[in-house]
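Quick board copy: two proteins, each given as sequence then tokens.
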Amino acid sequence: MTAFATGQVVAVADLSADDQLPGFGPAALAAGMAAVFTFPMRHGDRCVGALNLYRDALAGPLSGSTMRAAQTLADVAAAYVLHADTREQMIRNADRFRDRSLHDTLTGLPNRYLLQERIEHASHRAQRTRTAVAVLFIDLDHFKHINDAYGHCAGDQLLIAVAARLTGLVRPGDTLARVAGDEFVFLCEDLTDTRDIDGLVDRISGAFSTPFTLTALEIAVTASLGIAYSGPGELVTDDLVQDADIAMHQAKRRGGANRQVINQRLAEQAHDRDHLERDLRVALAHNQLDVAYQPIVRLADGAVTGVEALLRWTRPGHGPVPAQTTVAIAEQCGLIAGIGAWVLARSCQDWMTWIGKKPGRHLDLSVNVSPQQLMAPGFISTVTDVLAATAMDPACLVLEVTETIFIEDDEHAMTILDQLKALGIRLALDDFGTGYSSLTHLRRFPVDIVKIDRSFVCDVNSNPAATTMVAAVTHLAHDLGKIVTAEGVDSAAQCDQIVAAGCESAQGFYFAHPMTAHDFYAQLV
């Protein structure tokens, strides 16, 4: 018995010597075969291919049951091929939609969303390699006057020409993005000294020394440049872009066509960071941290089916500290494992209190896990101990992770996630759409839930690309067997859009603000 490939299908059949296709003459084959039987691969009224069955013997009719079995095999093969093509097309479409949503439609440059991804990646790289990052913020001088004098078509041509000229200056590994009308940003990584970008700054200034040739005219334009640096190994956030923006406006106030530097590592900032670290250690030691809870709502009927635990810290004498700042300080000073374990234990205890008062009530508890916390030695033991101490049902616990855990040690991260799944815990991919290679990780992560980042949800009513992205991610996640939660839903209009996209659940100010454990219990029905 021998098998041959035909088109996309390999057919293997065991036909008896007594079988023969009526009306079909035997064909002698060079490989020693004596007969071939062809069956159409049907899909509706279409024929999408052919299934060939080869047999050693020359003689023998094909029985009716053999004919029917062979045709069934051909039809199943057709369905399989068409399904595989559909899945591949869906993945290609989702990748294409994502690419479009991350690039400026006029210039083709990365937009603000993709810049945010690159900033997060640059931050992890800087902390790993102990290097610095710089942001160069460029704004064209008097661009409104150009639009008023020559029209918006000429203005668009000028922006395209500026983008092309600046693109020629990009260093390997750096990013050039268009973040607003006439605003461009360079993100420069792997700096060992602030002087590493002096040459780039000079070339940017030189790029505006000659006029730009458009379709019907030449336009001379200048630009103001703001520069901000992080320190070696520091956390890098949007604040660095904001500092560069401030520096750019300072340059404009000096008359434009100028440059201005803001140094991120001023002495008072370092002094304040030291005090933050000291106060955070005291807060953890003296139980001064707290947890707030934000409901997660099922969109089909508005029922509360889950709740996300959110770290809160009110610094004595200073007021509330943003959770992102608290986590960043905790990671820098080695407190994140202890704080993360405390949040997990506290939220599991609160969950047990709620369920104890409302037996039979199904409620998922979502807890965020930072990359450092998840990758720290003993994390699995910590989770196991908390589940045992609180008697929390593992099936109701959802740990939220981001794809940044894969940047440093991909295999170790996968091992930890698999161990968590073995405990019966579910996993959610948090902030989807803002991280590094999101679609690739969506296919690889053993996650049950995909949480679409609020940066896309907030724009669904004003940005068609954001709406397309939410729908594409939702459809792809469903195709991969995952459910979808939309974050940051703050209005009825946004809720309508994510319902139309097919999201199962959502959270945001439209449904409820984060609240205390007592207040959350009071609203449970």
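And the next:
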Amino acid sequence: MKKLTHLTRSSLILIVFFGLDKVVAFVRTSIIARQFGRSTELDAFNVANNVPDLLFALISGGAMTMALIPVLSEVLAIKGRPAAWNVFSRVANLAFVVTGVFAIIVAVFAEPLVSARLGIAPGYEAVQRALIANLMRMNLIATLIFSISGLVMGGLQANQHFLLPAMAPLFYNLGQIIGALVFSPSDPYSIGPLTLPAMGLGVHGLVYGVILGAALHLGIQVPGLIKYQFHWTASLKLDEGVLKVLKLIAPRVVTMFTIQLIFIVRDNLASQLPLVGAATILTYGWFIFQVPETLIGTAIATALLPTLSEHAAQNRWVEFRDTVDKGVRIMLALSLPVAAVIAAGLRPLVAAVFGFDDIGTTMLTWTTRIFLLGLAGHTVLEVGVRAFYAKQDAIRPMVASILNTAAFIIFGVVVIRQMPQWGTNGIALVGLAYTAEAIFVMWWLNRQLEGPSITGGSSLVRGMLATLVGGASTYLLALYLPGGAIITALVGIIIGGLIVLPFIWKEVRLLFNL
């Protein structure tokens, strides 16, 4: 049997654990949805996450981690692990201090951030806005923990270690489940012979679960630091390595701000809809969409980044281009039919997992389907953006993200003003701006690389054929198979997925030979 390549093993590790994480996340989401329903409290919890998430993304999450991995990979290849950990320590110290300062500012100005006309949720009543501000302040504790934990993920991935970082989100979800089952309920919760105590904290208990999850997210990665002989340097000195990270992070901060701004604008628009639970519908629709996006796009692209960074650092541009090309072909061939198959069999599963009323189930189903229209664009964007960061070029992804966000805001305002009857579907439809961004990023990348353009070629054609066959097969099977709706939907999705395999088998084999 042929031995799997390092990239394939890394990708499969990430896919497996990201998949487990999504299973646990569905359990968590189902528990929370059934406890709180389509309610103002659940809307408040979902909206309150936005500014803390923005702070994390700008400082140590997607911003600094994406900038950190290429620099650490370069230092590891040239100077060795002790020098790399020295750079990591200084960056982590700086991230924690900056996060702390901004967390204090956000806590002080929480009310105006929520209530201002251009704030997070100006369309809600005063009581609900006060609750959002309170929950936001509590969430900042988790943000401080993540300011370190997010960088630890990047540090371990730069060392080509993916197992513990892949497990960390799973433990984060476990903490949130404890919050939902123990901290929130007023009555004890029984799981078989086990009866869990109830603390009766309501929606505040969900935030305590987030804090616990953040601590577990960091704790599970500590053995990895020990394995790779991590040594902490108590310094904020801006040495050469740190300056390289900061040079990359400046445009990355702008990029992450624009990405997170989309979520803030989305909830701002949702608060103006005459629908209870609009923000929750958009949050959960995005959550369902993120399952295939994470397993296909994020997992594979995350595994590719350290290798792309090594190719770039050593000027191996032929290998660099070939690696990007393989990634794009895999993304297109897998994501197109997967989106169609999921969309076709989605509704009974949404009803079973979330337990909403018929109106809520219909809203969530169609909102998710519209999000899924952009799955291929999102996954290709994951590879394209990482290709630029591997080249230590953060400017072009920043420009593309600014244009995407501007388009989202403009068309979002048009939809909410001119076509409010579209509801959450209209806001989700505006998210197709990400597909336009992916096309733009790949066009720009092709201009930078020698050799044939990376377009997906025959993989795109096979993916589209698989989409038509798989989507139609899943829909017909779910519609005409005897049995309950949930069973027929699951069987339809499974058989539909098997039917598309012959069309995209070449790309499936490519995944196992990265």
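Board note added afterward: The chain has a mean pLDDT of 85.
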